[in-house]
Amino acid sequence: MSLISFNTFGASSSTSSALTKTGQTIRNAFAQLSSGSRFSSASVDSAGLAIAAELASNLASISQGSRNASDAASALSTADGALEQVSNITLRLQEIAVTSANGVYSDQQRSALQNEYTALTAEIQRIGETTSYNGQKLLDGSSISAELGGNSIDVGGINLSELAQSVASQDVSTAAGAQDAVAALQSFSDNLASQRGASVDAGLARLGSVQDTLSSAKAVTAEALSQASDTDFASAISDLTRAKALQQYQVAALSSMNQLQASLIKELSA
Predict the structure, then answer these.
(1) Among 123, 118, 117, 203, which Cα is nearest to 158's?
(2) Into how many domains does the chain fold?
(3) Distance between CA atoms of 63 and 222, rounded to whole angstroms?
(4) Integer distance in angstroms from the first to the last C-alpha of the chain?
(5) Under a CB-based contact definition with an 8 Å cutoff, are residues 84 and 74 in contact?
(6) Which residues span the domain enclosing 261?
(7) Residues 131 and 198 in one domain
(8) Could you state, in chain order, the average pLDDT of each consecutive group of 10 residues for the chain (270 residues)?
């Protein structure tokens, strides 16, 4: 009778321990289902948690890099719009110079043309000195540095005021001066178009490619993070259902063992 008693007590203790583990399984399953994360605690999968943390960090870096590239593209677009206005002004300056170079105009008429010429070249200088994005000058020779998360690229870098000095110094109040201005303006127009293409248009194209690359990397990293950290609902529900059924069996078994223990103790005490 004594041997039966000890075996019964051991079985009861084992069942109680198993019941505790089952309860923890149920709590973990509920935590995963309610939070949407399979890491209800670090002990569930410490290695997986570390991988997920690194993926989350990478995703944040890629996302910010994409935003930085977008900001840089917006800045270049602002610069491009300003240079488009300068190109329009240059066309008018060329018209003025060609008009003044014509021998049929009087000095008084050329003086009026010179006044407009001076005002328009001053406007080009103003555009070069004041065009900015978020407080950063865009046409003073400074480049725009875009931090992409681990690496950076520099775009832009046109110095408009320096480039326009050759046309600002021209005098169209005489026919000879106007002819010199025609040549200077043509050279300025060619240089402006060349630098605009190399610094701004090429920069916009490069940033567009960078954004496409980062967008793809963002999608891949987000998918990897989801697979690493999101709850597998089908598996969690299955674990919960199985654990609850097992818990019911263990509770019933423990209750029976407790009743048997009570009976044995009563017999031994008799």
Answers:
(1) 203
(2) 2
(3) 10
(4) 12
(5) no
(6) 2-36+231-269
(7) yes
(8) 49 64 62 58 66 84 92 94 96 96 90 96 96 94 87 90 93 95 96 93 92 91 75 60 67 66 64
